[in-house]
Each structure stands twice: as C-alpha cells, then as structure tokens.
Design goal:
homodimer; alpha+beta; Alpha-D-Glucose-1,6-Bisphosphate, Chain A, domain 4; 7-stranded antiparallel beta sheet; 4 helices; 7 strands; SRPBCC family protein (chains A, B); ASHA1/2-like_C (chains A, B); START-like_dom_sf (chains A, B)
Chain lengths: ~160, ~160
C-alpha cells in the first residue's frame, strides 16, 4: 500500500515462525501488546486501543526507576485483520491533527511457508525526522521489541 | 464520529435541497469538485483524488491574475459513500506524515426531509491554529464555496 522511500523511512523485516493471526493478536490485544511493545527493562503500563480507523492508539511507558513520560494519543489508520495495521502520531483520536506528529507505522503480515513475513515500515515527513529516529535508537529499540514479539508469538502457537 | 470541540474546531452546517448522493458526487467526482470547491474568482485548476483511505487529496488553485500557489497533497481518511468523507493535510498520500499539517476536514451527509443536512467540521491541533484559520477567512471562504456547492448540487437534481 505504501511506497517505501529509503531517504525518509525506516524498516524492520523478519520471517517469524508464527501465524499472521497470532502476530495480529500480539499487536491488537492490549494485554498481549503490553508484553512485548517496549524494550525491557522498560514496560508498557497502560494501553488504549480502539481498533477502528480513527480510534485511539496510546501506549504509556514506565521505566525501571519509575519514569513515566507523558504518553501521546495517536490514531489508528488501517485495520485489516491478520494483514495490515497502521497508526500515526501525526493525528490524535478521531483524526484530529497533532502539533508534534512525527511518524506513521505500517505493519504488514504476509503468510510465508508455515510462518509470516513481518514488515514494519515507519514513515517520516523529512530525512531529518528519519535521522532523529535513528539517533533515538530506532534499530535497537524496535529490534529488541521485535525479539520480544517473536518470543511471545512463538510461545503462543 | 468526531467529538467537536468549540475551542479547537470550526463548523459549517446547512440543510440543502439535494440528496446525499448528489452532494457526495459533488465532493468526490473531480470534475464536479472543480466547479465549486474554490471561491470565485479563484478556481480549481487541477484535482487528484484517490477515493480510498490513504489515497491522495490534492486541489490546485489558480487566482484571477494567474496566481498558482504550490498545491499540497493531503490524505483521504474516511470514505463512506453518501454519508461521510474525511481528509487531512497532516498526512500525505499513503499516510506519510507532513511537516506542515494544519487541519482535518470531516464532511457528513444526513438525509433530512427531501434534502440533506450537510455538516463540515474542520479540526485543528490547537486554538491558535483554529484562530489562524478564522483569520485566513474560513467563514467567508468555506461559506462562499458552500454557496457554490448548493448551486451546483441543486442544479444537478
């Protein structure tokens, strides 16, 4: 659905030994999402997810020393069960613009063999935003979370 | 679908003597959209509209002296034929964030008597953005365009 642009976007891709349906549940069931979405020792303390285009997507994080950064309420954009999930922080619930929008995430799940080709694309407005996301530790942060997702999803099968 | 917030948002509402289907066509058929969307003597010189969530929404304007401000490519968010249409300039095509996002427009069409209750809600991130939109001439601009829409839609019936 989305043209990937190497100069603007970031991508994580992996073939996972779990079904698209299981990976979908891990992304969209708040109790499962909490178990993998944040690289440990940080954790997700609270999730609000209204699984419809225009619905809220909010994950509150908590650090090992009790840090609690102010969570931001993003917006669900696309909901195609076991196929595609997209959300953005450029809009809030019900599509209201947000002043501090930064990225759109597009997650696709494609059956491959007995597992799933998992592709997470993270779209930015500018090359500067892409670089800022890299500097914030995108590869390690999203990579570690993906390891946690794989562990959870394969354990559920 | 959207909670209206008087401190952040702007609204135009009118009962129009045309069907929801006709008003829908006027919004979503590029050839019809060009005929009313821009207050005369300005005109719409070019439309790109991919009528699906994530599709492009672009209207290029041309002034009476040949002015051609750079058009911005926004993103379609909701497509419910003859009921609801929404788009934003906070995202570009395929949901990519845009650096200069400003508003989301949510247009609803509800049958009323032999016509339609037409509500255009324009959502902003901040009260400052709402005021800027007022200062840019929202009431006159959107109001004049709505008069042109009414003229076109009632003529089509």
């Amino acid at each position: 659905m989305t043209d990937f642009d190497d100069t603007l976007d970031l991508r994580l891709e992996r073939v996972i030994a779990a079904s698209p349906e299981t990976l979908w549940r891990c992304w969209t069931d708040p109790e499962l999402l909490k178990q993998w979405f944040c690289p440990r020792p940080w954790k997700v303390s609270h999730v609000e997810l209204d699984l419809r285009p225009g619905g809220i997507f909010l994950t509150a994080m908590e650090g090992p020393e009790g840090e609690r950064p102010e969570p931001e309420a993003g917006c669900v954009l696309a909901v195609e069960p076991a196929r595609l999930f997209a959300f953005t922080d450029s809009l809030g619930p019900d599509y209201r613009p947000r002043a501090s929008g930064f990225m759109t995430a597009v997650i696709s799940f494609t059956p491959e063999g007995t597992g799933t080709r998992y592709v997470a694309r993270v779209l930015h407005a500018t090359a500067k935003d892409r670089q800022a996301h890299l500097d914030m530790g995108f590869e390690q942060g999203w990579g570690t979370a993906l390891d946690q997702l794989v562990e959870l999803a394969t354990g559920l099968e």
